[in-house]
Amino acid sequence: MDRSGHLRLMARYNTWMNDRLIDLSAKLPAESLIAERGAFFGSILGTLNHLIVADTIWLQRFASHPANFPALRPVRDLPQPQALDERPFDSLHALAVRRELLDRTIESWVETLTDADLDSTLRYRTSSRGDESNREVYPLLVHFFNHQTHHRGQATTLLSQAGVDIGVTDLLSLIPQR
User: Fold this and answer.
1) What SS3 class is residue 135?
2) Would you say the pTM of this structure is higher than 0.85?
3) Is the pLDDT of residue 1 over 90?
4) Does residue 93 have a pLDDT over 90?
């Protein structure tokens, strides 16, 4: 599988898992979603909000690339998060609407990327300290998808602790047999 194929697979996995997390979270009462559970971002809803915040930060960085990727137009004017622990959504429904927009945008954008895009450099400033970074796009995308997987793993643990059967979460489920 080439790099573009790998990124398309990761984008599909991202959408599949996020849809599952939203659906499974919807089975819980609101109090369970906001209950402090000792995770990095506190609660199930806090963890899901962190994914929205981090994805928005990264997608807005990618949208600043000189290639001006048209597929990233939907994220350009979204409110820019100010902190990684920000909680822009206090309800699962509102969060799910934004999650769907982000996941559709990610899948559409990844479909358009060329090898030249992947080999290009993204120049950005970190939102926390304002440090300047100049990094190759492909490894940044690998980081982007890895970060999502890391925190979705935390969310699945929190859901499991709340009594929700998560089921299969492996990327392997989306890799076709030969």
Assistant:
1) strand
2) yes
3) no
4) yes
